[in-house]
Structures are given as C-alpha cells and as structure tokens.
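General statements about sequence and structure are easier to judge against a single worked case. When preparing material for the folding task, we compiled for one chain both its residues and its backbone structure tokens. The amino acid sequence and the backbone structure tokens for this protein are reproduced below:
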Amino acid sequence: MTSGSPDTTALIDRYDTARASHAYTLTGGSITSTVDGLAEADFYGRYAQAIEERFPGRWIGKVVSQALPKADAQRFKDYGIAIYHPNYEVWDKRLFSLISPGKERYVGREEWHRRIPEYGIAPGAVPKVSPGIRDQLHLPLVWPAGGAR
C-alpha cells in the first residue's frame, strides 16, 4: 500500500482461509494534516479501495475516524466503506477540552459533535454505552439512502 509496507490484501487472503471474518475496520487516529500526502479520508480510503477491489463484497467495510465534514466522509463511501463510525469522544464540554485538547484545537467540540448527526444509525445497531468518561462506546453510523446528505 505504501512504499516499503507489506501488501495488506495478500496478508488477508493468506490468513482468512476459513472466511470467518464478516467485516473489517480501518482506524488509526485522526489525521490533522496529511500522511503520505493524503488527507484522512483518502489515507484510509486507499486501504478500503484495495480490499474492495481484490475481494469485492467479501466483507462489510467500516472506518473509525474523527467526525469529518460531509464531503470528506462521502469519500469513505466512494472507496467502498459501508459503515462510518466517527469517534464520539467526550460529550461533556469541560472534559472534552481536558481529555481531547488536540481535537478541541483542531475541530472543536461543538463542530465535532455537530457533524455526527448528519448520518443515520445503522439498521439493527444497538448503542453500547461506557460507564466511564467516554459515554458512547459503539454506535455504527451509515449514510442515508442516496449517499451523504
């Protein structure tokens, strides 16, 4: 995928011989500028594209990333991702700035949370709530019919 790194799709094909996997998740943290010259949606998207081209329809693709603007998140779908799961981080305003100071500086809590409702909850998804600081552990989001709004 990147210069000098192993071909991810070859590793998948080699080790998932029983086809026990039903989904894959791409995640790795927020990209606030570029990596390999790519913004976040394109950086993760290239992996999804490679997987989808080599194994069309074999898995449900999911990406866990920061809450991106609609146009950027739409690119995930364009690369073949079925579920977009933005990190909710912390709901409390004071705790967000203390626990996620980089996200507070880069996007801001209000904008971060404003972006999330632009997507729908995946059919059949059950939110998993944490008893700790991060209130929402798991709530898969999908694009509305017809793509991102």
Notes: Residues 8-142 form one domain.
